[in-house]
TrEMBL record:
Pfam families: Beta-lactamase2, ORF_12_N. Residues 164-256 form the Beta-lactamase class A catalytic domain. This is Beta-lactamase. One of its GO terms (biological process) is beta-lactam antibiotic catabolic process. Transmembrane segments: none annotated. PANTHER family: BETA-LACTAMASE, CONSERVED LIPOPROTEIN LPQF-RELATED. SUPFAM superfamilies: beta-lactamase/transpeptidase-like (SSF56601). Residues 432-463 are annotated as: Disordered. Residues 22-113 form the ORF 12 gene product N-terminal domain. GO terms for molecular function: beta-lactamase activity. It comes from the Bacteria. Residues 438-463 have a biased composition (Basic and acidic residues).
């Protein structure tokens, strides 16, 4: 059995000790979930239900205990690694034959488990050079893009770039524009952090996040909603904020953030609209692809209704029909940089608190005291971006993107997330761009025009 916090068994591995010592909600949940796999007896559904969000059992039609019984056949398990990051956590376990698995957890805002999955461990290759990163990303049928840059008083220094100027779908990176529009509305006195948004059927979206489970009429402060929009990539939260601001305000934020072609994001879509257009009636996809901007705005008025799509309906990719949020890697960098300036103007510290709440990966805070992170995914789309500021105040940005005609070659994002961690921890971002790999593959290198690889962020919903 996994021990209680602070109770480290004799001879425990470093990973076991770390898991035992974590007294956070994630540590408690990870110990409990790991214990389900190592306990002498199989836990029945009635004894586990209280740990999960109410919608969890519906995803296990045979009962979660049946799934748990299958997982337990791979054991007995030993804890080999534990990585908690805010509301997400990963426990690497090895079975008796040495095969390793990753137990992934996602908590909701109350500490209940929303996602619990066991899958073979995703192996992340060493990426100590930009060439090794490109080699790792190169997979048939998957486009990829990389931008690594340092922001200096003299301007941007590109450390490495491949297809950085190519517009690609980016999933939930669109929420960065919603956040910028919100900050500007608050600065202009049009809204305050203590104002409220109201959950309504026509604004309810699909996960990620948990606000879609709130009853109709629930009122939530703008502050809490914005926090969930960024830290938990809450789709319904983002749509509530966008509705309160108005579509025009978000479109102005796109232009103000130096998007290279703002028309690609007009009309600016909500997650609700992408889901409804992409995976409800097929004729809606056809109509969207064939209409101009005015026609598309009319189509959005026609579907302003409660969503008819369920999470199980998502599968076929739709991003090539324009049903996503297309940005270049430089567009991503510009909106991150804009948010950094927004935060510096915010005397309340609210913007910084929201943007730094979830770094996406375990980060050495002594080395990187300031980290902004955003992930994004839809079927056939995966992206991760970071803005990191070191102890001297120098800012670095890393953008990794993948797109394919189907989800399978990309996977659930653990691979791309892991590559980001490799780059950040390798020292590549701090290397002198005039020497070695960084100099050889600077701006305009253009490697990896049709490359990508993934295995293993976080489900099918826009993130």
């Amino acid at each position: 059995m996994i021990q209680a916090p602070g109770s480290v068994p004799s001879g425990a591995t470093a990973a076991e000790a770390a898991l035992a010592a974590d007294d956070s909600p994630m540590g408690d949940a990870a110990r409990w979930a790991s214990g389900l796999l190592t306990a002498p007896d199989l836990a029945p559904d009635e004894s586990t239900a209280a740990r999960f969000v109410p919608t969890f059992p519906a995803r296990h039609t045979r009962g979660f205990s049946a799934t748990l019984a299958e997982w337990r056949t791979k054991g007995p398990f030993t804890v080999r690694d534990y990585q908690p990051v805010a509301h997400k956590g990963w426990v690497v376990l090895s079975g008796p034959t040495g095969v390793r698995y990753t137990l992934s957890l996602t908590l909701d805002s109350t500490g209940l488990i929303r996602i619990l999955a066991l899958q073979p461990e995703t192996v992340i290759p060493e990426t100590g050079t930009w060439d090794e990163l490109e080699d790792a990303l190169r997979t048939p049928g998957v486009d990829h893009s990389v931008l690594a840059a340092r922001l200096t008083p003299e301007g941007m220094v590109v450390l490495h770039e491949s297809a950085g100027a190519r517009p690609m779908p980016t999933g939930s990176a669109y929420k960065l524009y919603v956040m910028r529009a919100l900050v500007h509305a608050i600065e202009n006195g049009e809204l305050s952090w203590d104002d409220e948004v109201t959950v309504r059927p026509e604004l309810r979206s699909l996960p990620t996040g948990d606000m879609q489970d709130l009853p109709d009429g629930t009122r939530v402060t703008v502050r809490e909603t914005a926090y969930k929009m960024i830290a938990m990539s809450d789709n319904t939260g983002a749509d509530l904020i966008a509705d309160r601001l108005g579509r025009d305000a978000v479109e102005r934020a796109v232009t103000a953030s130096r998007h290279h072609d703002p028309s690609l994001l007009r009309p600016f879509l909500t997650s609700h609209e992408v889901f409804e257009l992409g995976w409800s009636a097929p004729e809606l996809r056809t109509a969207w692809a064939g209409r101009d901007e005015a026609g598309r705005r009319e189509l959005l008025r026609e579907i302003a209704r409660p969503m008819t799509v369920r999470g199980s309906d998502l599968g076929e990719t739709v991003h090539r029909l324009g049903l996503d949020w297309h940005m270049t890697a430089h567009d991503v960098l510009h909106v991150l940089e804009g948010l950094r300036h927004d935060s510096e103007r915010d005397a309340t510290g609210t913007v910084e608190h929201i943007l730094t709440a979830y770094p996406g990966i375990p980060v050495d805070q002594a080395k990187w005291p300031r980290v902004y992170f955003k992930a994004g995914s839809c079927p056939g789309v995966m992206m991760f971006c970071w803005l990191l500021q070191d102890r001297d105040g120098t800012v670095h940005v890393l953008v990794l993107r993948q797109a394919a005609d189907e989800q399978k070659p990309i996977g659930d994002g653990l691979f791309l997330r892991g590559l980001g961690a490799r780059v950040i921890n390798s020292g590549l971002l701090e290397a002198d761009p005039q020497s070695g790999e960084a100099a050889e593959h600077g701006e305009g290198a253009g490697r990896g025009e049709g490359a990508g690889r993934g295995e293993g962020a976080d489900g099918k919903a826009a993130r």
